[in-house]
Design brief:
The structure holds 2 protein chains of 2 kinds. Chain A is mostly beta strands. In chain A, 0% of the residues lie in helices and 57% in strands. In chain A, strands 2, 4, 5, 9, 10 and 11 form a 6-stranded mixed beta sheet that branches. Classes of the chains: A mainly beta, B mainly beta.
Chain lengths: 109, 112
């Protein structure tokens, strides 16, 4: 079966750094996505990795290791507005997205 | 640009009734998707369409049907609603099945 694992919830302090991990087992791999979803809102695209390594976009970075079936999203200089759920999704051999349940990130002052 | 719109925003529906959730995009994206999101679970794909005139089944298609008569619209129909279809429904679109997906604001459906 196909499986995406992420921690259910994490807590971090404003101004700090947090790393959200995602491990996956899917039938084929055609890229990994990270989305942000604020409570009661739609998911919005954050990052995309298809090759191994780090992709940096402002305060957010995403890392991929295809051999380990592993990715992480790194958020720096945390702000209160970063309180949200972060969704990991893998595009499988049929080019469909398989989604993790999401990690709820709580930012404390 | 509106992006993707969905209607209604929320709905309470009696079991056994039918309902169509509407989705319209103005980005001229070829691919469109319907997901349901339930607490503690990842987004699950119900149906998809790679281009106007074609549709496909996702992970959880039973009890739902879709049509894609044109590029912009992708309605989702529940023929006879059951309480297990209580969920938040998101429509999404992408510029081909290899691109990131853009999501509509969602429809919160409660089946009683």
């Amino acid at each position: 079966g196909q499986n995406i694992d992420q921690p259910t919830e994490m807590t971090a302090t404003e101004g700090a750094i947090v790393q959200i991990n995602c491990t996956y087992q899917t039938s084929g791999f055609n890229g990994l996505f990270w989305y942000q979803q604020h409570a009661g809102e739609a998911p919005t695209f954050l990052s995309y990795n298809v090759l191994d390594g780090l992709e940096e976009k402002g305060r957010f970075s995403s890392f991929l290791s295809r051999s380990k079936g592993y990715s992480y999203l790194l958020l720096k200089e945390l702000q209160m507005k970063d309180s949200a759920s972060y969704l990991c999704a893998v595009r499988d051999s049929n080019y469909q997205l398989i989604w993790g349940a999401g990690t709820k990130l709580i930012i404390k002052p | 640009t509106a992006g993707i719109t969905q209607a209604p925003t929320s709905q309470i529906l009696a079991a056994g009734r039918s309902m169509t959730l509407r989705c319209t995009q103005d980005m001229r994206h070829n691919a469109m998707y319907w997901y349901r999101q339930d607490l503690g679970l990842g987004l699950r794909l119900i149906h998809y369409s790679n281009t106007a005139g074609t549709t496909g089944k996702g992970e959880v298609p039973d009890g739902y049907s879709v049509s894609r008569a044109n590029t912009d619209d992708f309605p989702l129909t529940l023929a006879s609603a059951v309480p297990s279809q209580t969920s938040v429904y998101f429509c999404a679109s992408s510029d081909g099945d290899r691109a990131e997906q853009y999501f509509g604001p969602g429809t919160r459906l409660t089946v009683t």
